[in-house]
Design goal:
elongated; single chain; 3 domains; seven-stranded mixed β-sheet; about 50% helix; Rossmann fold; about 650 residues; alpha/beta; 22 strands; nine-stranded mixed β-sheet
Length: about 650
Amino acid sequence: MVQNYLTNNVFKYTSKWMVLLIDVVNVSVAFVLSYFIRFNLTFNFDVDKLFVQTPLIALIALFSFVVTGSYKGVVRHTGVRDVYNLFNAICLSSIIAIFVVILNKQSNFIEDFTIPLSIIIIHSLISFISLTASRYTFKSGYYHLLKSFKEKKIRNVLIYGAGESGILTHNALSNHTRYTAKVVGYIDWDKQKIGKNINGVKVYGNEVLTEDFLLDKDISEIIFSVQNLEHNKLLQLVESLVDFPVLVKIVPPVEDWIDGELKVSQIKKIQIEDLLNRPPISIKSSKIAQQLNDKVIVVTGGAGSIGSEIVRQICTYNYKSLIVIDQAESALYDLQQELKQNGYHNFIPIVGDIRDKNRMNGIFQESRPNIVFHAAAYKHVPLMECNSYEAIKINIAGTKVIADLSINFDVDKFVFVSTDKAVNPTNVMGATKRIAEMYISCMQQKNRTKFITTRFGNVLGSNGSVIPLFKKQIEKGGPLTVTHKEVTRFFMTIPEASQLVLEAGSMGDGGEIFIFDMGESVKIFDLAKNMIKLSGLKYPDDIDIKITGLRPGEKLYEELLANGENTLPTYHKKIMISKVRELDYLEIRSKIDQLCVTNMFFNGDIVKMMKEIVPEYVSNNSEFCKFDEKEKNTASGQEDKSVKEVLQS
């Protein structure tokens, strides 16, 4: 309330003209004071002269302030630039005063305007000091008054990094009236800085980061403000702090600052992406621009997590036309509005179902695409385990529709977005993606279209990802749910995955399955604990973790390579080519066609047919485990029979 009153009422009337008036009065008082100083604080001078000289000095100062614009600055945000403007104004005023005094000596057009040079010099110094001091006094008083009326408790903050970025972070926190924080110290590893003060704030060494020190200083936040900090170093530092009862935040890179100035709103909590066991993937030399230049591009599933990011990245290149297809109307609308707001207009959003061959045929016939990125799929493992019809209809039959149309319309490249769950699948979703991979391999054999598959693990922040789920559970006060204490997953960010899909598509010659270097797998239980701690909470005191048991079709760990596969390197160290085992393409294609037809009419046992196409598909924690048991029993019976025949013979 007090802050709103001060801002809306007091400062509403403290206009630049008021500041100008105060500055002129300040200079006038400083002129009188300069005489007392010059004559040793006595009246041994002609006081009557002041009544002539002071108004003229005030007019000269008024002219100087107007010319330099020093009065236009917002007083409560006074900075170095404002002080520089004041210095220019005082210098200009002194020069004009000296010029007038010299001119007056020659012509004597103003009586009693003979000012000693020493008075002008003393006046300049006093004026500059008083004007600067008055601004900083007003600024300090304003912030002190606001903070004294704050209802929230002031949080004590440590800034990690006593360099230029750290100092700018301190300034941003100090100048922000709504941020109730007090910087009590810097942390730095530079021995020359440790023990010294910067802007009245002490610099500590890294060794003080102990629980006793943090409790003694009542630290509630630690802000990392070190530019170009190595990822491994950041990871070690953050992991050393997550057990402490503090909130860990980070300052973005300088290039992301708004107009080159750091805003408090840009200081964010450390995200779980920062705790991946590898540095972020970036592609410096890329063929993507050349590949997409002047091309017509289709992206299916374009409003999904991966598809939408592929669309965003494609929009930055010089393509001819971009067709974005998705059946999710709301998500597609949101993407459309986002792209328009960002200045991208050369795209066509189409609401459509990839299962509808007539609809897709019309789109291909009208657009004649050169490149297709096929990201449309159902991907939620437990849901697809109970809805195998839909999983097959979208992931296999839908892929088949788009692949067949790509051949019919002479598409140059077809890039398929697959998943690590297609490797030695244990669920319906993974099996459908593996069958889609196999169908694409079949299509590559006889046609000019280059079919390329990309395979990677879980994507942080995608729809259905564990990260958004954990965030919602933390907001509700927990508990966080983990299916198994030992379950692990590979992770990468959405921009990384999309960038690698584009790069793999540009380097592919057809028939390859590209797999991405996902780093080390992450234990989900540890991920949950870190997210709790990064939220400033304690495990298990504030939020607990509940083990719910593996869901249908879920396995403890994911793989990027199937049995019998190995990899070949590419020119990008993060992208490898999987050497897959040979397939009987005619037989596989025939079985896939039969599977799609059978699924269409709900005839036969669909999952059993899938297991015949993908022999390595062994269900886990699912009702479909019965088919695997039957096969084992059948194989065991045949083995017993053969042994008996041998014994009898």
